[in-house]
Amino acid sequence: MKEQLKKIEELAKAELAECTEIKALDDLRIKYLGKKGELTAILKQMGKLSAEERPVVGQLANKVRADIEEALSEKLTSLKASEQAARIAAESIDITLPGKAQTIGKLHPLSRVENEIRDIFMGMGFNIADGPEVDDDYHVFEALNLPPDHPARDTQDTFYINDKILLRTQTSSVQVHVMETQKPPIRIISPGRVYRSDAVDATHSPLFHQIEGLVVDKGIKMSDLKGTLEMLMKKLYGNECRLRFRPHHFPFTEPSCEVDIMCFNCGGKGCSMCKDEGFIELLGAGMVHPKVLEGCGIDSSVYSGFAFGLGLERMVMGRYSINDLRLLYENDVRFLEQF
Length: 339
Ligand code: PHE
Description:
- 43% of the residues lie in helices and 19% in strands.
- It is an alpha+beta fold and 339 residues long.
- Strands 1-4-5-9-8-7-6 form a seven-stranded mixed sheet, sandwiched between helices. Strands 2-3 form a two-stranded antiparallel sheet.
- The longest helix has 39 residues, at 53-91.
- The radius of gyration is 44 Å and the shape is rod-shaped.
- Bound molecules: phenylalanine.
- Phenylalanine (PHE) binds next to β7, β8 and β9.
């Protein structure tokens, strides 16, 4: 029996030495020390022993049990330690590695300037109006006093969907939509895309942006138009900026004018950016033609109004000294990052 006990201790220790998992330790404990375990099986046979042998074997059995238990708990401690070490090694971060930079998007220069212009007009009590980019001939041309054979249509050649439906060439079409649905006093701006079948170059694109303005009320005069535009440009470009109003012709305004701003680059002296003019053309404007008002059901003997349409790309290019329109559409991050 003594030999059997010693054997059990040896076997238990050998198996423990091989053991590499905490889970397997429990199985070993049951196998050797459990109720149906090997040690218990031997102790059950103690009754067969003589009175002298019993305490000796009993003592030995207790010692074997204590030894195995101690070995088990030592193994548990060492397995726990190596498991933790493995986990730390697996979870460790190399703080010397370079970080992953977060690239943060921002507004396109066209959107930025458009937002600024919206804010300025909202500060002057204007509302924002929206109109369709795909519109009919009536709103884009006819209602704006451009009958089917009007020569000015040629300068705004466009993309027709069919005989009557087309991509708008100018945001002036929104003037008509607004006057058809709202009663004076009207004070709106309408930013949006317009389309013309132009070939792409440094100053032309088949898609560009305009901001239309329309004010209709009693007693609106040309001086209101001038004051409004001067206020806009001073807020955008600073108090020193100067505007030049030149007579012009648009079928839907009378009188009409084109408005230039003193060159951002040379301050009026003349340079390559303004083609030696000293001024850069920014927009078309004028007093709403009585025929247009009447066509929209507004009594032109009571009401008058002014309208303007400014080219957003021009404003952005002037603002940031960009000399090629295409840069605004190529979406090259190296360009866009600079704003
Ligand atoms: N729609 C004109 C253009 O595209 C600009 C304009 C708008 C002129 C409003 C007068 C009044 O050229």
